């Protein structure tokens, strides 16, 4: 293992810190609705079959549970299975986070949301996007299983898959991870990138598998690159190479 | 022979005179007075009676009321302070009350008004200012701010159509359903 102390990568560290912390904040979409929180459905028309528990709402549908509000053109909700399906310009809003998609399915009394069709999760200036976003509100776990992307004012991370584990303050991008920050002149790639926010004061980012980071023409490559965010230090494992380009 | 003709003519004259008296009444001129409102045709009135519809020996519904009035031809029946029971094949029933109701004896359609409250066997309750029972298949239609409560589910809307079990429900206009939240 090579320890490269005081290497000048503050921009990279700051960018990754902001990037991955924002991953966590993005996922704080909706506080998990209490199991017994009533569900209110409003629409132009609603059909309800008490025997099956199936409810079909049409026209300006609005579903409210606690502080979470979902809207769409049409919705089905089963009061027995507590599963819902909204279609047509679906938007789910809770506090300052918004999830939009062509369709959203909800399971287990709205504690599991699956959005697809240009799914976008927005919080502040950050956006998590993918063709499909899954979110477990009880465990605060989020998954973008393919073509995942996080956009921020100063950078973007894309990966085949991104998972966020909110309580652990951890997020993982898997498969063709690519971090780009024009503002910081940073471009990094790896097979996998994981951010560990805990324990406090020892947060880090691990880029694994063919890791390569470029900033201002300086190139660091290795099998595994570890960015110790709080110490502003970087560790590298495996065959490592640092190429410094004179300014 | 002449005597027989005379008797027949006398009978006809007497009958014609009696018929005129019955139709015009002793104040026949008054009825023609435009200042006097026309009196409705006399209705048949029943007190403490019930109207029952049965099909193939099975009772479909039974209506009772404080007063029941029917038009002379019996096609339209008016009920005041209605109490109705709608029976289902499975033995369950739905009870309904209303201030006023009109029954079309031909179509068996019923229109109701005033503090309508229907209660199904399972406890589901339907309230509305106005409602009707009719159509094919027969449905209850509540209008004017309708509420249906079933367990922990409350359904409201401008108009609600439902079956006689209050089980299949369609809400039109400002439809709203509040469900769940019951603590076990």
Automatic annotation (TrEMBL), chain A:
Any Pfam family hit: LptD_N
A cellular-component GO term for this protein: cell outer membrane
InterPro entries per the UniProt record, alphabetical: LPS_export_LptA, OstA-like_N
Domain of life: Bacteria
Keyword Ribosomal protein among record annotations: no
Signal peptide interval: 1-30
Name under which the protein is recorded: Lipopolysaccharide export system protein LptA
Species of the source: Sporomusa termitida
UniProtKB/TrEMBL annotation, chain B:
Transmembrane segments: 5-23
Keyword Transmembrane helix among record annotations: yes
Alphabetical UniProt keywords: Cell inner membrane, Cell membrane, Membrane, Transmembrane, Transmembrane helix
Presence of keyword Cell inner membrane: yes
One family name in Pfam for this protein: LptC
GO CC terms, sorted: outer membrane-bounded periplasmic space; plasma membrane
Domain of life: Bacteria
One GO MF term attached to the UniProt entry: lipopolysaccharide transmembrane transporter activity
InterPro entries for this protein: LipoPS_assembly_LptC-rel (IPR010664), LPS_export_LptC (IPR052363), LptC (IPR026265)
Protein name per UniProt: LPS export ABC transporter periplasmic protein LptC
Organism of origin: Sporomusa termitida
């Amino acid at each position: 293992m090579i320890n490269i102390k005081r290497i000048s990568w503050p921009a990279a560290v700051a960018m990754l810190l902001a990037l991955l912390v924002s991953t966590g904040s993005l996922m704080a979409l909706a506080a998990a609705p209490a199991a017994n929180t009533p569900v209110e459905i409003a629409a132009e028309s609603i059909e309800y079959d008490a025997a099956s528990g199936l409810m079909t709402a049409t026209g300006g549908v609005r579903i409210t549970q606690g502080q979470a509000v979902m809207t769409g053109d049409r919705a089905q909700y089963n009061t027995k299975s507590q599963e819902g399906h909204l279609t047509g310009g679906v938007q789910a809003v809770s506090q300052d986070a918004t999830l939009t998609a062509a369709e959203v399915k909800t399971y287990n009394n709205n504690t599991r949301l699956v959005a697809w069709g240009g799914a976008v999760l927005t919080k502040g200036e950050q956006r998590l996007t993918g063709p499909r976003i899954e979110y477990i509100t009880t465990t605060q776990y989020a998954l973008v299983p393919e073509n995942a992307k996080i956009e921020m004012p100063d950078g973007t991370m894309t990966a085949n898959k991104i998972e966020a584990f909110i309580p652990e303050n951890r997020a993982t991008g898997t498969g063709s991870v690519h971090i780009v920050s024009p503002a910081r002149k940073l471009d990094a790639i790896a097979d996998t990138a994981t951010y560990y926010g805990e324990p406090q004061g020892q947060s880090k980012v691990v880029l694994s598998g063919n890791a390569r980071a470029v900033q201002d023409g300086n190139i660091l490559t290795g099998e595994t690159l570890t960015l110790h965010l709080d110490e502003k230090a970087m560790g590298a494992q495996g065959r490592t190479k640092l190429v410094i380009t004179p300014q | 022979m002449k005597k027989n003709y005379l008797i027949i003519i006398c009978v006809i004259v007497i009958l014609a005179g009696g018929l005129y008296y019955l139709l015009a009444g002793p104040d026949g001129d008054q009825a023609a007075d435009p200042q006097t409102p026309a009196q409705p045709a006399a209705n048949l009135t029943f007190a403490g009676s019930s109207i029952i519809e049965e099909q193939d020996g099975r009772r479909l519904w039974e209506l009772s009321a404080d007063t029941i009035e029917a038009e002379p031809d019996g096609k339209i029946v008016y009920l005041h302070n209605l109490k109705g029971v709608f029976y289902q094949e499975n033995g369950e029933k739905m009870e309904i009350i209303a201030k006023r109701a009109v029954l079309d004896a031909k179509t068996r359609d019923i229109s109701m008004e005033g503090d309508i409250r229907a209660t199904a066997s399972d406890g589901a309750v339907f309230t509305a200012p106005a409602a009707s029972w009719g159509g094919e298949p027969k449905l209850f239609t509540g209008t004017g701010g309708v509420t249906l409560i079933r367990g922990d589910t409350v359904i409201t809307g401008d108009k609600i159509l439902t079956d006689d079990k209050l089980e299949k429900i369609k809400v039109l206009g400002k439809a709203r359903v509040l469900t769940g939240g019951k603590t076990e």
